[in-house]
Amino acid sequence: MQRLKRTDWLRMSTVPIVVIVAVLAAVITTDLATGGAHEPKPENQAALGPGAAAATSRPKTPLPPTSTRTPTAAPTTVSGPVVEARDKTRKDDLERMAAALEKYYDKKKEYPSTGGNLQSVCIYKDVDAYCKVEDFIDPIPADPLGDPAANGYWYASDGKSYTLIAAMEMPADAMAQNCPEAAPKHTKKANLYCLTGNR
């Protein structure tokens, strides 16, 4: 049987030590990466003084599952004095706009024509026919919610008759029976209130 030299014994005894050190290093690295077994102290929690009781940690609320679908807003029914006031303003605005159209007709012997198509009420000054009435109503009313391109009023006329349209917030304030058939599709609004006139 061959005898092992002293250097061979040293090499053989250091192998397990190297393995143990490597395993310990891996455990420490994993522990540091995951934050350890202890929950970190919240940033806004002061160090405890002598005799102070340790704060109890709150249970963590699980995060809701993620979804790739975009949430859609559920339709809501609005009501209340503020909403009622806005709908009243819309009706009053349409009455004032109709009165201005009659003054325009008295002078020009026709209403500003849109060719029977629906247009916004003077959002696009170069295109919208209702802008011609500007001399008879100043300023031209805008929806109380602002952003006329999204919440504005609409107008349609063949020169001898007209329709003015507003989108009400309360379904009870709507009066869709006077509205052109294309109005909901064109305005992309529900609860329409329409005021008509002719000569």
Notes on the protein architecture:
The chain is elongated and about 105 Å long. With 199 residues, the chain is an alpha+beta fold. It is built from 4 helices and 4 strands; from the N terminus they run ααβαββαβ.
Could you name the key traits of this structure?
199 residues; four-stranded antiparallel sheet; 4 strands
List the SSEs and their pairings.
Blueprint: H1 6-34, H2 81-108, E1 119-120, H3 148-151, E2 154-157, E3 161-167, H4 183-187, E4 192-198
Antiparallel strand pairs: 1-2, 2-3, 3-4
> Which band does the percent of strand residues land in?
5-15%
Query: Which percent bin holds the helix content?
Result: 25-40%
Distance between the termini: 127 Å
Average pLDDT, rounded to a whole number, is: 78
Alpha-beta content class: alpha+beta
Please describe the biggest sheet, giving its number of strands, its sense, and whether it closes into a barrel.
Answer: 4 strands, antiparallel
Strand order of the largest sheet: 1-2-3-4
Q: Oligomer, anyone?
A: single chain
Question: Would you identify the regions where 5 or more consecutive residues have pLDDT less than 50?
Answer: 38-57, 66-76
| Envelope shape | elongated
Number of strands: 4
Radius of gyration: 38 Å
What is the tally of helical segments? 4
Q: What is the H/E string?
A: HHEHEEHE
Give a nutshell description of this structure.
By secondary structure, this protein is of the alpha+beta class.
